[in-house]
Each structure stands twice: as structure tokens, then as C-alpha cells.
Design a protein that fits this description.
The protein is an alpha+beta fold and 764 residues long. The chain has 11 helices and 36 strands. α2 packs parallel to α3, α2 crosses α6 and α6 packs parallel to α8.
């Protein structure tokens, strides 16, 4: 206690001395207060994703025996949700009892709201907004809807057809997102440039000094292909800037940017050698955007162009090893060369493939409920897989299920690309002992069925969906008005075993070219080597920003289809390099000597004048002179016009240097044409219309046609090749068959005559 009083007395004396000193000091004017530093506003975004965008291609129908449905959505790790809402669009059955019928809304298994069904809503489309707790929103989230419907007060049948509620695919999850401040740490890479949890198409600015070199473009192409392989179905955008970082938008936000610079060729904002000294090895560094501290800038630095390529490959290969704000790349080495058709997104064709290798998320092969959802497996194949007149693709399915109560009425239906393949009966069995029930789940024939099926090979394409539908028979609808009975629905379980296999081994690779559909859907023929090591990209010298954006987005699109970055990417603006044994991807214009062959001339005559021949140099935009010929009468007609609107084309033809190599040319002449081409590459609907050997692109859409003769790429054994070629000439095949029969008969006749003469000579 005395110690406390001593501390109090000492403190009081000190305060008294300070007060006296201040009183004795001369009075001076107070110093002006320093102005507080401006605190940058925290960037925020408003986003809305419909159920269709989140994977629901059609409306969801909730029934009395299928009462629950859910939709998943994600949130980037560098953002936080400050507000969340569910805009629900639904139509209830007109036969429901109002008030007692309702809809429960859950967010991550927490009840958010109960939406009653009012009398005036029955049979009408209703839009209802439900508030969601933003504190519950994490990286991955799930909104679950549970339908509680009643149509009468007594003796209800859950399977009654009047119990339904339709949830529209235009329902939306609306989020107000706020940026989180991230450290300059490469351990987060590829964030914040790309986050797989995001739903939107990533847009990453690529920044160069003026007149970027081919080496800088190559490094940017490798990194763009990496982001393309990661983004997949989302697609990617790569705006290109010279000597400047991206400007702030109207909300004072800056998009992330990646800068490519060497010691001798740098953008102007990296000219300060004290802050950004010259490097003596490939270096990757993350810094804050000077205009927006919530945005990041990635510096890819090197002594020369080779260093930039090493740094880009290191980011694509060893991003998991990076840490800190600055990393020096010591070595990048390819331990094993790539082989044809080893794209990660394509199913292997050298051995049987287990379903465990094809699933994308846990529990994909499981379903439950009285009406289980469809179980689907995606099967992506190389576009040149030769399945002509094949007996079928072996499919071995193993599945387990809850034994149904009714025998010979429950089925498993298997279909491919919405085409029916077969239907298998789900057998039931009476189980009177617990031990037998447990054995039935593990090894009983009715619970673990193995069937070998032949998938119709002619329905196999480059993208396929294999679907399994379990249909369990029910007795719910057997209740009568005078005899009311209540029973609990069985929670049926169904599983397609991960050890099920599909076998495409033994098939050859052979395809008729040119085929632009194979390019747009599978990146073929360039994706044959997934790292593009057998591809040469011909680019114009000193390309503009729009031209480079088109180049990077096209390369990223190929990698998105193959699933592998273009580590072997090569660029050139010298057509002498095109004579190498490679497939050619051409941007801008074809060289004059490429069209030496007859077929090439036919293709070029259909497109060259459209895109490359200026008819009036004095007009603001080069006018076009073009021809249009019917595919059944090639070259018979010609129409010449002059116009000033943008136009572009995608052309496929055989390489004049190697008969097994192909050329795909993306033809354009100025920035407006390139922008039209770029918009087409980003539009999945327009890309679906690209086919044949020539695709003409205008603002009205895409028109495709076949020009010239086909050629074949791949290999077939001689006997199969002979049979395939003869199949297109039935008259010749019939003549050869007749000739073979006559020749065989003649030989048999001569042989029999020789044997008869020999026998008669022996009798003499």
C-alpha cells in the first residue's frame, strides 16, 4: 500500500513541475497542424451471377420427392463480401396451399430466410430478394433451397404431381465485394492476377517498352498461355500497353499489370536505375501500383530476351516455390520431353482410363434421394481420333446402389451426349439379417454390378458427356382416398465406382484437313504437342497493341483447350523460318510464296482480296475488293465490292513445305480488323460457327465454307487406309469385288482342271 502512495506522490510532483515550467515559458503561437495524409478509397465491386452462369443450364424443378437443390459460388481470396443478396425467381404450383407451403434458404448450411408462398403468387412467376449474411461467405459457398409444399390438409402423397416449384435459371446471387490489401509476396502467385475462385474472365494488362522485340513477345506469350491454361472455360483478356501502366477507371481502380523489360529495353517508368537496378539474371518482382496500392504490378526482368523466357517459364512451372517480393531464377530445365497427345485436358488413349482420373471434384460419382441427380463424367478426346466404322469403345461400369423395394422396375440408364446407349435393371433382394445386408453393400452381385458396354463410337467427338441416371421405382402414388397411409421416403444411395474404366487404346490418329472446327474446339493441329513445341507462330514486325492482344489471347485459347502452357512457343517474322517441319499459326498476312500449290491458290483467291488489297488509298480506311463463290461451283463467280467496314478471316490450308503440316491463318490488315478478330476469339457462340477451310468474319457474324481439296494428317495401317479410301468409291469397290470373285473363280477352275488331268493321267 505504501508503495502505491509513493508512486502517486512522485507522479503528482512530476506533473506539478511540468505545469510550472510551461507557465514560465514564453507564450508562442501554436504550430499549424500537418494535413492528414489522404487515405485511398478501398476499391469495391458489384457483381451478379445468375444460376445459369453458375452451371445451371436449365430451370430447377423442386418436387415433393425431390425437395432440395443447391448452387455453388466462390469469392476471390483477395476480396471480402460486404453485402450479399439472393434474387430468387420462382414459379409455385397453382395447387399449393398458401402460407403452409414455403421455401427455406440456406447459406453454407445456415438458415437465412423462410420465403412463404402467398395466395396471389400461385401459378405466377415471382421475384423475391433474400438477404444473405456476408460474414458467412468464404472462398467456396453453397446456397441451398428446400421446398416444403402441401396440397391438402390430410392424406398427402409426396409423389403427387401437384407438388412442384420451378426455380428459374435467371435467379441471381448478388455480391458487394471489397478489396483486401495483399503483401508483395510471390507466394500468392498467380494471385492477384488470376484467382480460380473468381467467376469473371480475367483481364491482365501486359506492358512493354515501345517496339517490343520478338523475345519479349515470346515471354509474354508463354505467360499468357499459362493464365489461359489456368482460366479454362472463363477465357482471358490481355490488353497491351506501351511505356505506361494501366490508367485508373472511374472508380479509381487499376487492373493488375505484368511488365516485361530487359536491361537495354525498358518502359519509361522503369528508367530509374537506383530504384530498379539492372539485373544479372532472370528476376521476377512484385510491387505496388504507384496509382493504386490495392493493385499489383509484376516485373519480369532479364539481361536479354532469353532471360525473359526463362523467367516466364519459371512462373508457369515453379510458382509454388516462389516466396517474397523478389525472386531470382537460377535454372529452368525440362527433365522429360513432351510426347504427342499428352495434353492434360485430353483423355489418355494409350491405356484404359479409370473414372477416378476423370472426376473434377469429390463425390462427383455419387447421388442420393428418391430421384437422384444425374451422374456425369466429361470425356475430352483429341479431335483426330479415328473411330470410323468401329464396333464400339469398351466401357466397364461398376456401380453400387440401395436395393429397390420393387423388382424389375428400377433401372440405370446410360447415355452419351444425350444419346441413349443402354438401360440396366437394378435388382432387389430380401435381406433378413444384418450381416447379409452389410455383405450386400460390399460384394453382393445386386449391389456391385459389373457390365461391359460398347459405347457407339460414331457419337464420340472432342467434347463428350457420359451420363448415368439411376431411376428407383416407388409406391408413393398407391395411396387411396378412403385408405390413407403415411410412409417415409427411402433415401436411396447410388455410386458409380471410381474403378470403372473406358478404353480408347488401339485407336489411330487420322483426320481430314483443313478443319477449322478442330482448331476452334481443340486447338488442333497445334495442340497435338501440348507445349506447342512443333508450332511456329508467324507475326508481323512491330505489331500494334491490338495485334499483340489478339496474338496472346489466341495462344491462351489453345492452352485453355489443352490444359498446358506453351513452354515451347516460338515466334518469327521471317518466312524463311516457315520451311521448318512445323505447323504454322499465322497472324496478319500470308507470304506471297505460300500460295504456290493449287489448293492454296484456291483458298487464297477467296480471301486475299477481302483483306489485303487496298482499292482506294485515299479513303480513310482501305476499301476491300472481294469475291464470293458457291461451294458447289468453286471459282465460277466473282463479285467485287468496295467497303469501309472491318472484315477478317480464318483460313486453313496445307503447308506447302511439308505434306503432314498445316497452316491456320488469322487474316487481318489493320487494328479494326484485328479487334473484330479478337472479339470473335472471345465469343464462344461465334467460335462454334467457325468451320470448314475459310471463315469470313464481319460485324454481322461468321460465315464458313469449304474451299479446295482435303488432305489427311496422321497415320493408318495400309489395309485400313485402303479400305477407308475405297469406302468413298462404292462403284470402284463393287468392280474390284466382282473382279476379285471372277479371278478367284478362274483360279479355282484352273486348279480343279489341273487336278482332274493329273488324276486321269494316273489311271492310265
Amino acid at each position: 500500500m505504501s508503495r502505491f502512495f509513493n508512486k502517486t506522490i512522485v507522479a503528482s510532483l512530476a506533473l506539478l513541475a511540468v505545469a510550472c515550467a510551461q507557465a514560465a515559458a514564453p507564450v508562442t503561437a501554436p504550430a499549424p497542424a500537418a494535413a492528414p495524409a489522404a487515405v485511398p478509397a478501398i476499391p469495391n465491386w458489384s457483381s451478379a451471377h445468375s444460376f445459369e452462369q453458375l452451371g445451371r443450364a436449365s430451370d430447377s424443378l423442386l418436387l415433393g420427392i425431390h425437395t432440395s437443390d443447391q448452387v455453388e459460388f466462390s469469392l476471390r481470396r483477395d476480396r471480402i463480401a460486404s453485402d450479399a443478396r439472393l434474387q430468387l425467381s420462382y414459379t409455385p404450383s397453382p395447387s399449393l396451399l398458401p402460407q403452409v407451403s414455403h421455401l427455406r434458404v440456406y447459406l453454407n448450411d445456415v438458415l437465412m430466410s423462410v420465403v412463404p408462398i402467398e395466395k396471389d403468387q400461385l401459378g405466377k412467376k415471382v421475384t423475391q430478394t433474400v438477404a444473405l449474411d456476408p460474414h458467412l461467405i468464404a472462398d467456396y459457398n453453397r446456397v441451398r433451397l428446400e421446398f416444403v409444399g402441401h396440397y391438402t390438409d390430410i392424406c398427402e402423397d409426396p409423389a403427387n404431381s401437384t407438388l412442384w416449384l420451378n426455380v428459374g435459371r435467371d435467379s441471381q446471387i448478388q455480391l458487394q465485394e471489397q478489396a483486401l490489401s495483399l503483401k508483395n509476396d510471390l507466394a500468392y502467385f498467380p494471385m492477384p492476377f488470376f484467382d480460380p475462385r473468381g467467376q469473371d474472365k480475367p483481364s491482365i494488362n501486359l506492358v512493354f517498352a515501345n517496339a517490343p522485340t520478338l523475345g519479349e513477345e515470346r515471354a509474354a506469350g508463354i505467360l499468357a498461355s499459362y493464365f489461359g491454361s489456368q482460366a479454362g472455360w472463363r477465357g482471358t483478356q490481355f490488353p497491351v500497353l506501351f511505356d505506361q501502366l494501366p490508367a485508373l477507371d472511374e472508380q479509381h481502380r487499376a487492373k493488375p499489370a505484368i511488365v516485361f523489360a530487359t536491361n537495354d529495353h525498358r518502359p519509361a517508368f522503369l528508367a530509374d536505375l537506383q530504384r530498379f537496378p539492372a539485373v544479372d539474371a532472370p528476376v521476377v518482382q512484385m510491387i505496388d501500383n504507384p496509382q493504386d496500392p490495392y493493385s499489383k504490378v509484376l516485373l519480369v526482368l532479364g539481361r536479354n530476351d532469353d532471360d525473359l523466357a526463362h523467367a516466364a517459364r519459371a512462373l508457369a512451372l515453379g510458382g509454388d516455390l516462389f516466396r517474397g517480393s523478389r525472386v531470382t531464377v537460377d535454372k529452368v530445365q525440362q527433365l522429360k520431353p513432351r510426347v504427342p497427345y499428352d495434353a492434360p485436358n485430353w483423355m489418355r488413349t494409350d491405356r484404359p482410363v479409370r473414372f477416378a482420373e476423370l472426376i473434377k471434384y469429390p463425390e462427383q460419382l455419387q447421388a442420393n434421394g428418391l430421384q437422384p441427380r444425374s451422374i456425369t463424367v466429361d470425356v475430352n478426346l483429341p479431335p483426330d481420333l479415328f473411330v470410323w466404322r468401329n464396333q464400339g469403345i469398351p466401357l466397364q461400369t461398376k456401380f453400387r446402389y440401395t436395393p429397390p423395394a420393387v423388382n424389375d422396375a428400377s433401372r440405370l440408364t446410360i447415355s452419351l451426349n444425350n444419346q441413349f446407349i443402354t438401360s440396366l435393371a437394378l435388382q432387389s433382394k430380401s435381406n433378413s439379417q444384418l450381416e447379409q445386408l452389410r455383405l450386400a453393400v460390399l460384394s453382393n452381385e445386386s449391389a456391385n454390378v459389373t457390365d461391359k458396354l460398347l459405347v457407339p463410337a460414331l457419337k464420340i467427338g472432342d467434347r463428350n458427356t457420359l451420363r448415368f441416371d439411376f431411376n428407383f421405382a416407388t409406391t408413393f402414388a398407391s395411396a387411396q382416398r378412403d385408405h390413407c397411409q403415411t410412409s417415409l421416403p427411402v433415401n436411396n444411395q447410388a455410386v458409380i465406382d471410381e474403378e470403372s474404366t473406358i478404353d480408347l487404346s488401339g485407336y489411330y490418329h487420322y483426320i481430314a484437313m483443313p478443319d477449322l472446327r478442330a482448331f476452334t474446339r481443340g486447338g488442333f493441329p497445334f495442340s497435338r504437342m501440348a507445349d506447342l513445341s512443333q508450332t511456329l507462330v508467324m507475326v508481323p514486325s512491330h505489331g500494334s497493341a491490338v495485334q499483340l492482344s489478339t496474338l496472346f489471347e489466341a495462344i491462351a485459347g489453345i492452352s485453355a483447350r489443352s490444359g498446358l502452357p506453351a513452354f515451347g512457343l516460338r515466334l518469327s517474322d521471317d518466312w524463311n523460318d516457315a520451311k521448318a517441319d512445323t505447323d504454322l499459326l499465322v497472324f496478319g498476312a500470308l507470304a506471297a510464296n505460300v500460295g504456290n500449290g493449287d489448293d492454296a491458290n484456291l483458298v487464297l483467291s477467296k480471301t486475299r482480296d477481302w483483306l489485303l488489297t487496298p482499292a482506294n488509298e485515299d479513303s480513310g480506311k482501305s476499301a476491300r475488293a472481294g469475291q464470293f463463290s458457291d461451294a458447289r461451283d468453286l471459282g465460277a463467280n466473282r463479285v467485287e465490292v468496295s467497303a469501309q467496314a472491318p472484315i477478317a478471316a480464318i483460313v486453313g490450308l496445307q503447308s506447302p513445305y511439308h505434306e503432314q503440316r498445316s497452316i491456320v491463318a488469322l487474316l487481318a490488315s489493320d487494328d479494326a480488323d484485328y479487334q473484330l478478330l479478337r472479339d470473335t476469339l472471345a465469343d464462344s457462340g461465334k467460335m462454334e460457327a467457325v468451320a470448314g477451310s475459310v471463315a469470313l468474319i464481319r460485324s454481322s457474324g461468321v460465315s464458313s465454307s469449304w474451299v479446295g481439296q482435303q488432305y489427311f494428317v496422321g497415320h493408318l495401317p495400309w489395309w485400313l487406309l485402303l479400305w477407308y479410301q475405297l469406302s468413298e468409291h462404292p462403284i470402284l469397290l463393287a468392280a474390284m469385288a466382282t473382279l476379285s470373285v471372277l479371278l478367284t473363280a478362274f483360279l479355282l477352275w484352273r486348279g480343279l482342271r489341273w487336278m482332274a488331268r493329273r488324276r486321269l493321267a494316273g489311271q492310265e
